[in-house]
Amino acid sequence: MKQIMIVIGLIALVPLAVAGEADWRIFTSRAGGFTILMPGTPTFTATTDHTVVGAVIENLYNLATPAATFSAEYSDLPGIATFFDSDDSIYDDAKEGLLKRTGGKLIKYFGIEQAGITGEEVECEIPAAGKLPLRRLRARFLLKDKRLYVPSVTIPDGKKDDPLFSRYLDSFKLLKSIERKP
Q: Rounded CA gap, 22 and 97, in Å?
């Protein structure tokens, strides 16, 4: 009898798991030249960052849910930036900018290979502030043809092994052709 109750309980959970899966869809940014899984439709914002090498437009898709905040950003870097700086230097600058912007404390920073690109992954812990709890953020920096891609996910309560990290970040893929603005 106990085994039957366990089986019935597991069967009852299957629709819940499937319903959660159904919410995840491939999000495509034709202008950004990538796809990534998202559990909903993100909002888009573009901001201009004035740097020593020129203006950089940061294009950001963002989706906040109770479980996590999902972001996918891309920026076209000025030619002079990629001419004088190595990929590693660009990744280090992106990491430092992310840590400064979030107030995060670096936990890990290591090389990765994704979408045919050798890049970097950063993991940091963002301290609790006001009503926001302790958060853990993972981001990947991927540079392809003067375009820097930064998919990231932030999870409340500092859960370091949450499967959302790999599920989201591993789903990032480049499109075969990119619609670049003149």
A: 35
